[in-house]
Specification:
The chain is mainly α. It has helices spanning 4-20, 38-48, 73-94, 96-105, 107-126, and strands at 54-57, 69-72.
Amino acid sequence: MADDAAIAIALDKLASAYHQTPERLPGNTNWLPPHEDVDTLKQRAMRHFPDYGDYVVVNPLAPRSQTPSVGNALDDVVSISCELKEVMLRAKQFGVADAEWFFRLLYFSWGNRMRQLSLYVHARQYG
């Protein structure tokens, strides 16, 4: 079972890696990765993070009257893992430059989940 302090450090390192990764020209945009068994990944995540669950998500740019939505820490872990796994597969298949391009391209997705998960972990640690 992973502890929150270790997860917080890993998420901080992931955020830092994005900022240190050079911008690249678009890579191979036609390649589709092998199908990922998301159910197996979710089962693995549940073993490592048994008490991770739902949390409230609020868009900081939305008006105060917005209705909060719900995020799920396990879904975040699985989604981030899948996207980073694809980055690694692209590095093997097409080289580091392609992987760096894709890593930065998908930041809108995994970065958002990483930031929300980081806030969730922070709240678990410090209330």
